[in-house]
From TrEMBL:
Keyword tRNA-binding in annotation: no
Coiled-coil intervals, chain numbering: none
Protein name: Methylthioribose-1-phosphate isomerase
Pfam families per UniProt: IF-2B (PF01008)
Superkingdom of origin organism: Bacteria
An MF annotation (GO) of this entry: isomerase activity
Gene3D superfamilies per record: translation initiation factor eif-2b, domain 1, Translation initiation factor eif-2b, domain 2
Family: Belongs to the eIF-2B alpha/beta/delta subunits family.
Keywords: Isomerase
Gene transcribed to yield this protein: mtnA
InterPro entries: IF-2B-related, IF-M1Pi, IF_2B-like_C, Initiation_fac_2B_a/b/d, M1Pi_N, NagB/RpiA_transferase-like
Amino acid sequence: MRTIDWVNGAVEIIDQTALPNEERVLRLHTVGELIAAIQSLAVRGAPALGVAGAFGVALAARVHSDDPAALSVAVQKIESARPTAVNLARGARRAAALIPHGPEAVLAEACRVRDEEIEASAAMARLGADLVAELCGNRPRLLTHCNTGGLAAVTIGTALGVVGELHQRGRLAGVIASETRPLLQGARLTSWELTRWGIEHRVAVDSAGPFLMARGEVDAVILGADRICANGDVINKIGTYAHALGARRAGIPFLVVAPESTVDVGTPSGVRVEIEDRGSAEVTAWGEAVNPAFDITPYDLVTAIVTDRRVIRVDRGEKP
């Protein structure tokens, strides 16, 4: 099942804000609808956002084929709909590069972005499962964070794709899914996907993760990324840094799984990345709150980064 696709002239997505209570498909016909879906997190996850960006430009190219100025404004709005994940702007720019060749060429490029992400997920699942087996032996117990399955990556997923591959190989003991505050993407989305796959798992509050590692209940942490900087710093959902610190203290691997499209060699380190703040409303109904959507995990806390093309052993000094 593809969680984002182009169907009969519109972008179709599974509405992630409705899960797990309702499996609702949204059809997005305009750039405005697509941007609203991105900003509301109806579609989210770095690879899926790259596909959304490309399909958004395909929509814009059809609507504004005779108005270059309006088309340029639409592309800029798509690129900047969310600032932290590199894939959104990258996917939009790839599709926009084909604008001189007409709307059908733009759509064809957007579909290539989609297909490449599907292929990347399958490759990451294999490489990541091999690495986990090498580092942790047979039937490890894994902790995940946020949501990194097919919902975030069209099909299969990044880190959760590795979990699924280990399960298929009969080499997985169980999963702890951190709930992932404030929108519970782990408790809602990861748990929903793991249940569909028949994978035994438990949900833990975010702050319990490091304690569970210290108590010996976790053999490795495995999660995704919204951006990987040139020095190996990892930008991912808020709470990732705390899990990295816990893993280091417990002496267990901290593994990041993300496609090459998430590697941003043009950004030297995490301090150069704009971290999106989602505002107080997602946290509390009264008063003010600080609500960063992402945090920065320094490269020296990362054991390895798995992409669809390679395994980068950051703990051995390798860089993206």
